[in-house]
Write a structure and sequence with these properties.
The structure is a homodimer. Chain A has about 210 residues and is α/β, with parallel strands linked by helices. Chain A contains eight helices and ten strands. The first copy, chain A, has two domains: about 10-80, Winged helix-like DNA-binding domain superfamily/Winged helix DNA-binding domain (Arc Repressor Mutant, subunit A, Orthogonal Bundle), CATH 1.10.10.10; about 85-195, 3-Layer(aba) Sandwich (Rossmann fold). In chain A, helix 1 crosses helix 4.
Chain lengths: ~210, ~210
């Protein structure tokens, strides 16, 4: 399924959305969907959908529509949701706590393997069957254990330091919740959840709703 | 500052990012920044930045660079961060709890005015000086109180019902954390934080990091 041509970031951002809709359809026992119906469900034009899918060889036949289950499997395969990902959460305050539980609820693809914090009150606590470790132990832990995804839920002030430890410890990628742009090696996989940014965009739309 | 031409969504998504960088520069006492330096800081090309700013009349002079404080104020004004926003959080589990504290920490622009939950164990609890109310009281509350932003942090199964109550209660916009596309009136301001989608995009990049 790999292509040598780089797939645009916007397409990659849309793939999970397609998958979400397909999971819903599959859950409802729907086996086949026309490109028109899919377009209506997902809110992208049929032409946009075709263009997106063409990056991966097209899928399904026009006119016939798409087979829901096989399209779902194709997209899961492209994203790489066919194996397990070991996750280390760094920063176990309210947000880290919530993200750990949230991630763990997502079928068996994502497994919280380790949780780290700086606060003596939290270190030693058992969360999701994992004992919260002192963040000082993070470098040594990463030397001994292969971690696929490091989650950064520490305050902004410590985020770069944690990012440096995670990249040195060769995690596969970083899911960053700190409200800042991390300085990472070129091409290092990162996904930023900038909550403030989203809230501010929403405020813009609230103020321009009548335009 | 309002323009009759609609500003592309991608530009609106980038405005908070500009603001974040400008706040950092301002915090460091930097008064002026060239478009080249700004480009390096933010990771967009200078031409992209010019194009973005042209949607709002340009700002600053080329060659001279941008005045950090006035650019910051311009962007805050465009986004509408110059007044207070009253926020109601619906769903006070781990994520709702974390989002309430997070939002409240964001200067005085955002004020958590009400929190709702369905669980008798959480109703009555005091969070951020606000008593958690029974979600059944939400429609009546919205009739009596003007809410700018409704935050949806309930499980997916209840999210549409809450969205319907929030729109009927004339909130200004919805900040949605439920992993689904809400059915909302045309043009209704909404910002979706689809955590799963982001995590799945990250997984794609982890699997294609060498391309």
């Amino acid at each position: 399924m790999k292509k040598s041509v780089k797939v645009p970031a916007a397409v990659i951002r849309r793939l999970p959305h397609y998958l979400r809709i397909l999971e819903e359809l599959h859950g409802k026992g729907i086996e086949r969907i026309s490109s028109g119906e899919l377009s209506e469900r997902i809110g992208y034009t049929a032409s946009q959908i075709r263009q997106d899918f063409n990056h991966f060889g097209g899928f399904g036949q026009q006119g016939y529509g798409y087979n829901v289950e096989s399209l779902r499997e194709e997209i899961r395969g492209i994203l790489g949701l066919t194996r397990e990902y070991k996750i280390a959460v760094v920063g176990c305050g309210r947000l880290g706590h919530a993200i750990a539980y949230f991630t763990n609820s997502f079928e068996s693809t994502f497994v919280i393997t380790a949780i780290f914090d700086i606060s003596p009150e939290i270190i030693g606590e058992n969360i999701l069957g994992v004992e919260v470790q002192d963040v000082k132990a993070l470098p040594a832990y990463l030397k001994e254990n292969k971690i696929d995804i490091g989650v950064i839920t520490v305050p902004k002030e410590s985020a770069q330091e944690i990012a440096d430890i995670l990249t040195a410890g060769e995690v596969g990628g970083i899911w960053n919740f700190a409200p800042m742009d991390l300085d990472l090696p070129d091409g290092f996989p990162v996904y930023n959840v900038h909550l403030y940014d989203g809230l501010q965009s929403l405020v813009y739309y609230i103020n321009h709703a009548d335009e």
